[in-house]
Amino acid sequence: MESIKTVRQLLEVRRGPVWTTSPDASVSDAVQLMTTKDVGALMVLDGERVAGIMTERDVARKVVAAGRLEGLRVSDLMTERVLYVRPDQPLAECMALMSERQVRHLPVLEHGQLVGIISIRDVVADIVAEQSFLIEQLEQYIYELPPHQRT
């Protein structure tokens, strides 16, 4: 198993749709989409342009602060200043950015176009898979050694 080093490689392995909504959509509809698709974030698009991101955290914090859900639009809750990454960026850099900025999702833009989204879960899963593979390789190497060389 080869480790995934860049965002592009991760997106190739983890093919799936990027779920989106519009700024004018109701928060209720957006939350229902997040629940149905089992995702923690929706990209908010105004036409083809990325207008923001709406995450579970945005919903939890801002709906409680507003004291209501009725009548709220995605534009009322979304984060407009979106951190994003490029497909050629190393995953280690993405992990550092997520940790430093305390975000769980990073949209992937190439030439200004949304091409994917990665989550901290995706990045951690790759790290775990890479470490598991390395452990297996080391165990195999050790067991192939003659008994007197295993210590």
TrEMBL record:
SUPFAM superfamilies: CBS-domain pair. It holds the Pfam family CBS. The lineage of its organism: Bacteria, Bacillati, Chloroflexota, Chloroflexia, Chloroflexales. The keyword Cytoplasm does not apply. Keywords: CBS domain. Residues 13-70, 78-133 form the CBS domain. It comes from Candidatus Chloroploca asiatica. This is CBS domain-containing protein.
